[in-house]
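note to self: the first set is below, dont mix up w the second
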Amino acid sequence: MATNASPAISDAELSAILSRLSGKQSVQSLLILARDTGAIIRATGAITRPTSPDHPLAAEYASAVYRYVKASEELVGALENIDGGVMGGVAREKTDGEEDNGERDDMRLLRIRTRRRELVVVPEDPRYVLVVFHDTPSAP
């Protein structure tokens, strides 16, 4: 998988993002994982509360999400290998200022929604994977 062309966010920017997201009413928890290993860099919210002394909830979530991110990256790579980034044989039009520099397609966002929660996973930064756990409101 190619590295992203996006510039890495600074630690100050990351702290500002975490602070802004933590203030949102629907956000239950946040996880910041190391992009290369999946190790927890920071965890906040409900997942930091252990359900028992031998049940590290944040670590379990981190492991599951990191495996999902890696599997999704493999899928993106496999799709790229199938058609070279051209879906159905129809070349995508480049937008203004976009260059074809030979880079592969990169994953930008994963969204998982269940009845109980929604996870938004942002693996775009080369150093971090941001995971936001949202409350899923009940249907009326």
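second set (the one i keep forgetting abt)
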Amino acid sequence: MSSSVGAQDVNLEKMRSDAMRGKWREVFEKCKQNRALDTAMMTGTGDTELHMAMSNGQEKLVAKRVATWGRKKGYPISNYPLF
């Protein structure tokens, strides 16, 4: 196993732990630091950090995260149904 894969596994475990404790800002900060974690499956059913946050009532944080991601990708905010 390469060290980058091992480091990503450690980051994913930390994100899962933070999510279970309701530390959503830390989870999203970790994703900002490592874009590969944006689409990482955090649960056995394939949920990402955004799925888990929405399931836990974190709509405002998810909306902010999606808006930030969209702006960086060059998408206009009006294209998102969350707004």
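remember for set 2: The chain has four helices and no strands.
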